């Protein structure tokens, strides 16, 4: 004796609807290797999230859109983390783009300004005495 065959309650499932047509708001994302460019040079720079980047020149005509946007943003010092957020690129991609720009001399990188935890006592006393004389 064979077991009875189960019958489906629903007939065959309908195929999923086609994806919606692209609208003007959706962007076609670029592949990251397109943004990075050819892998021709060595990339041995020490960039971290808090390294400050400052533009040294205007964008040249041969600059990629990412490089042009980066140079326009870096008129004042910005950290790599901020640039990554503004350009919507991952940190690893930002290091590739910035390294290429550092070797071309378009930007400079500098360590962030570290503030001392405690102010110098002699400076505080001089300020206090100066205020008392007023």
From TrEMBL:
<protein>
    <recommendedName>
        <fullName>DUF742 domain-containing protein</fullName>
    </recommendedName>
</protein>
<feature type="compositionally biased region" description="Basic residues">
    <location>
        <begin position="1"/>
        <end position="11"/>
    </location>
</feature>
<dbReference type="Pfam" id="PF05331">
    <property type="entry name" value="DUF742"/>
</dbReference>
<feature type="region of interest" description="Disordered">
    <location>
        <begin position="1"/>
        <end position="30"/>
    </location>
</feature>
<dbReference type="InterPro" id="IPR036390">
    <property type="entry name" value="WH_DNA-bd_sf"/>
</dbReference>
<dbReference type="InterPro" id="IPR007995">
    <property type="entry name" value="DUF742"/>
</dbReference>
